[in-house]
Amino acid sequence: MSKRKISIVYWYFWTFLITLTVRGQIPQIDSLKKSYNATKIEREPEIDGVLNDSIWKKIPVGENFAMLAPRNGDSERDTHSTKFKIAYTDEAIYMAAYMYDPLGNSIRKEYTQRDNVPQTDYIVLDINTYNDGENQTRFVVTTAGGMADARMKANNQDYEYNVIWDAAVSIDNQGWYAEIKIPFASLRFPKANEQIWSIQLGRVISSLNETYMWSPVDKSVGIIPHYNGLLRNIRNINPPFRLGFYPFISGGTDYYKNTFNGFFNAGMDIKYGITDAFTLDLTLIPDFGQTAYDNIELNLGPFEQTFGEKRAFFTEGTELFNKGNLFYSRRIGAAPLEFNTAIEETDRSEKLLENPEETTLLNAFKISGRSSSGLGLGFFNAITAVAKARYQNFETGQIRERITSPLTNYNILVLDQQFKNKSSISLINTNVLRDGYFKDANVSAGLFDLYTKGSAFNIAGEAKFSNLHTTSGNQLGFASQLSIQRSKGKFRYGLAHEFADRKFDINDLGVNFTNNYNNFFWNTSYQIFEPQGRLNQYKIEFYGNHQRRYRPSSFVRTGFGTKFSAVTTQRFSFGGFLDFNTKYRDFFEARTIDRFVQYNENFIGDVWISTDNRKRFVLDSRFLISQFINSDFKKFTFTTNPTFRFTDQISVQYAFKFEKEMNRKTYAAHFNEHIIFGNRDRISLENSFQAIYNFSIAQAVSLSFRNFWTVAQFAENQFSSLKMNGSLTPYDYKVNEENNPNARFNIWNLDLHYNWRFAPASELSILYRNAVSILDTQKDSSFLNSTEYLFNQAFKHTVSVRLVYFLDYNKLKSI
User: Fold this and answer.
1) What is the CATH number of the domain that holds 229?
2) DSSP state of 61
């Protein structure tokens, strides 16, 4: 039997084993859970943060919070007790929270905008309407009345997720108080005579550096969402009809090279509750004109540079679609598939008139939700328009067109079954269909995530199958992962294996930089959950790996290292790591299949610090150094990020990064059937600045800019040719205008942004931005000279205005 078939069989064995065992296991931590009965009320309280409404006097109290940190399990202080009450009507659920504190009116406040949680006191309400231990919505209210909401998966928080809700706070000499209203239309829950949800409440007391939870949590076992308490007695409510419209208009002008270009756009996003559990999100004629800039750098490596997603439609409620890491949303609307080819094929008889740098997204929708049986379903679909390059013949003036990206359809289907013991099994399929002669792609994956009884161990695995359809035929690929981790106690350990054959490729809708690997990993760690001396917490880890190519089977490298992190009682954090790697066969730097360059053994390590983020001045800094043995190649990086809060409304943040690498043996060019390597020095500086003035929790103006500069220069007469055994032999390679591997890159961008959330899910945004960049082969260019040259180039200036207004169908119907 081939190695590939063995890998597939062993993965199916694990899937079969888990299917047999997963349903019968219930973690022992269920015995720690609390329970609270909600009260039905006839009229809603006024949401003003002042808890003197007569309705609240009749509601039973939830109390007796337990400490989560720093001392896990301690009772709350008598001087800082927390209490809450929960009620509901036919339309919404309400909570009143009482946070007693001797500081009273002196409790520190910090104004922030939506989904920015400050380093002050705040209260947290987590609601899991399916009580599955995995998927829940988090609501946060701060002492200044700031609001944040997030979709949670295990311990991960996605603050890009937004729902419609309301909150208000008040403060007196006994403490502070919060009042919350969450419409049922903002939650998904099954039809039932009685809803049985799980909830958790948490309180952060910044002045004491303490965190408390209502339902006790044992940090040494499992994950925090497993400890949610139960919310009962919500009876005879029907999931409301959920339909919301988000129409928008936007417009503005660009100014570039003495030319103004106006633009206008109008469109709509729609949210529709198909059933009580499933929601349709639809965007028609999307507008991403005010999306934040990417942090672009000079990419000299063999892999593409990837960026985080900043478009709201692709970040809200996408936790199902991100399973298995098969979905890189920046593929949608990215550069056309043959953008570079269109440039390269331009001949001397014509000029390139137009070559779009991005494909146009026509529309997109997603359907997602979870049934009462724990089955999650997600379906995503997006369509991008045809992109064409246009050429003009110098002599005849004739125009010709070339398709660089055809009409393309992207879709994803996800099925995710959750079990009561917090485990899950998932199936995912992604598909890319291109009209015409371009390639199509299909990827399927199966995943499992199992917690054993008592949450002592976690076993997780993946099997992925890729299939590319090209003009030359089908290309089938396979990859798998399996890990076993101890998830209980101070001492933990784990083993993992990762495999991919040489044809595995998910890059049409996902990202995988490498394939053809057969890697093994191990780790062990020790951590504390109770303060010891001056440390509130610390963790020390040891880990290692052995990496090989799958076919032909060959050694790549072996490495091991240690990592340490700690937090003092004064919230000063520090840590670092130290790694050692054996000789390394790099199969990617040569930019040629099955060719590698061999690097010597190396050490790499770093140290970092982070000061108390409750203070007005906060400093984060890191220093990293890498040294190759018996080699002149060295690299070090220094970053620092000071933040200063002038007042509760004004804060500034500066970030600086300096990086230098010396004498790196790296790819330079292909020349006369030789793979040319050179001795390269590189230096880079990055400066960025952000300032924000919060008029209130609903209005703010912010200023941000970023400048990144780098120069990469090859030493003259120090080029080599790569040999088949991975070593380098001297080669006489001449640098000229056509063959110049040196590079200088400098980029600047600035945003001045005013934002006003004038109603729920409705906002007015005004943006001014400018940007400029250069990329050339200039040698010996200092930072100051390069920046002076950059500012002599033509800037692109943009002014835009965007208005979004939320319309609730239920209110429109009543009108």
Assistant:
1) 2.60.40.1190
2) P
